[in-house]
Amino acid sequence: MILYRDGYTPPIALIFFACACFAKQVHVSWDVGYVSVNRVNQNTFNAIGVNGRLPIPPVYATVGDTLVLDVYNSLNVTTTIHAHGISQNGTSYMDGPAMVTQCGIPPGGSFTYRFNLMQAGTYWLHGHDRHQNADGLRTPLVIYDRHNPYDYDDEHMFVFEDWYTNSFEYQLNRTLDITQPPPPRSNGFGLINGFNGNDTAPISFEPGKTYRIRLINMSTNQWFQFALPGHRMFIIETDGEYTERTEADGIELSPAQRYSVLVTAHDSDRFNYQYKVTMNTDLNAPVPGSVIPVYHGLVEYHRDSPLRAANEFAQKITFVNDIAINSLKMEPPLPVDRSISVALGNSLFSTGQRLFHFDGIVYSPPKVPSLFTALTMGNQAMDPRVYGPQTHAIVLNHLEVVEFTVHNPTSQAHPIHFHGRSFQVYGFGPADNDPLANTTIAPVIYNNVAPLRRDIVVIPGHHHARIRFRADNPGVWLMHCHIDLHSAMGMVLTIVEAPDVLQRRNNIPEDVVQLCQSQNIPTEGNAAGNWGLDMTGLPTPPTLA
Ligand SMILES: [Cu+2]
């Protein structure tokens, strides 16, 4: 068992001495490259790390700081970085998704991300080109608050990842190749704080102290559950948004979700305990006959105290539904100006492949990054058609309150992420156009008091979810499933928010334009690089079979 992992040691000085005195610049330099790792004793594919390391050290900052992230690309393909959950208000061009808000950084090229961190909470940085996050390009981004609404004495962090024996590219290509049998299915291996879940490190508790425990699921595919048997825990944060203090037996996180919980240690150090981490393979089409991986680690009060093992306590965990949690601000549901309904799916297409989609549209990137189309098409930028048939663009008006109802008529849960914002999770109910959906399996439930906010909502199979937000962030933002195989196979759409306001601001930095021009990628015109609605040159999209 490894006792010290420098990559995940919280910087105590930052926690206790971060004062309201000075906003600072947090400068991080990343050389993104291939690293040879053997994280679960049987895997040696070329993973993607930073500065020759994997796991990548987390980034810590304080609200008001500016993050300056220099990226040099040592890979032999393009790369980009996305700050997950950071709203990028005014800096849409720093959001990261390749061919949406920027061009990929070419091999041997570099680019500097620079943006203000105006939100306290638990976030993460990850690759947003070619799903390089799945091969390791991901790490926590913790932003400390200047005035914590909740008191606590210290922090611990648990970062969960799934890890596979092949690269994401291999898995995707094999899945898409209908001339070959599908690749062998695997639940993967659970990693905790960058290491094999079976080697979980102990955490220490001092009697009487209260701990904030940050939980981050950076997985591509798997849900994780966390419990501290023998202790009470209270949710205070969902995806960077404070919540009312809400008691929970345990926490379940979909890919890309984050939570913070408060746990107060027992008054005496007479016993040690265990934390319990379960990789919940049941939610994502379990591999038949597979065993659910469960990992235990020590909660150490005193080196010599006897252990009260996790299995001495009640095993049944009831997870708290999003609807049952109120936001700390106690903001009531926003009054809706406009309702938009979309349906996700997994269907057979004209290519003979089973693909993922919203409303029968399989996303593929445009020839001009959508943000440049929004900036250069004049009045036509308000017409969703100029973004091309394969980006599934939805244009929002500045400051309107939008309710999205996202229907999931599949049998599988999908974690749906919006770039550029958090949103209110207003309610759930049965999916439309789904013969298996009804109010018994998917009761209609709303939070009419003060819905929590978050940036990833899990829509269980045969359900719909209703989410609300005010369109107060002009920019181009993806909405997509955060299961990487699903988004890689089309479950992505594009939200173009207030292109008229974006054009008036006209603040795109020259180096963002240069990044495209140095690779001969057009920076004006519609999705095909033409004017008007002429889409000549774009590939023919697959259609529902
Ligand atoms: Cu999905």
UniProtKB/TrEMBL annotation:
Domain Plastocyanin-like stretches: 33-147, 155-285, 364-500
Residues forming coiled coils: none
Pfam families associated with the record: Cu-oxidase, Cu-oxidase_2, Cu-oxidase_3
InterPro entries: Cu-oxidase-like_N, Cu-oxidase_2nd, Cu-oxidase_C, Cu-oxidase_fam, Cu_oxidase_Cu_BS, Cupredoxin
Alphabetical UniProt keywords: Copper, Metal-binding, Oxidoreductase
Top-rank lineage group of the source organism: Eukaryota
Record flagged with keyword Oxidoreductase: yes
Family, per entry: Belongs to the multicopper oxidase family.
The protein, known as: Ferroxidase fet3
Organism from which the protein derives: Coemansia erecta
Gene: FET3_1
